[in-house]
């Protein structure tokens, strides 16, 4: 499963979603200030939302946090826009980003590696073991 879809939403679409649907305890002006746009620059967020300004790559982490967006997806969308004139470079970036995983997923993989290291055995990743793992997660971990 690819984390970065072929039809990735634009930065404007993602930011609009973040402003309108996520972190509803804050209004757009409060979100702009939390992102780091001072009182006189809150319109910068609106310009990005409308697609009239590009999202600075250095702002991806704070945008993701404040707007409750997937940082990898937001970064990918911003990079796709920056690489719009170089589809080969975008394909390379997309391929690399699809190999990343979240902190939570990383902890799961770390647990798997720890078990394999302790036991000296490798967990096979076939249909039967995947089904058993899914069953274990549902029955033992989702209490």
Layout: helices, strands, pairs:
Blueprint: H1 11-20, H2 28-35, H3 43-49, H4 60-67, H5 71-82, H6 87-97, H7 103-119, H8 127-141
Helix pairs in contact: 1-4, 4-5, 5-6
Characterise this structure.
The chain has 143 residues and is mainly α. The protein folds into two domains: 11-97, 434 Repressor (Amino-terminal Domain), CATH 1.10.260; 103-141, no CATH class. The protein contains eight helices and no strands. The radius of gyration is 19 Å and the shape is elongated. The two termini are 26 Å apart.
Give the low-confidence spans: none
Rg calc: 19 Å
Task: Tell me the number of helical segments per DSSP (H or I, 4 or more residues long).
Answer: 8
Oligomeric state, counting identical vs distinct chains: single chain
Beta-strand fraction estimate: under 5%
Listing every helix as H and every strand as E from the N terminus to the C terminus, the arrangement reads: HHHHHHHH
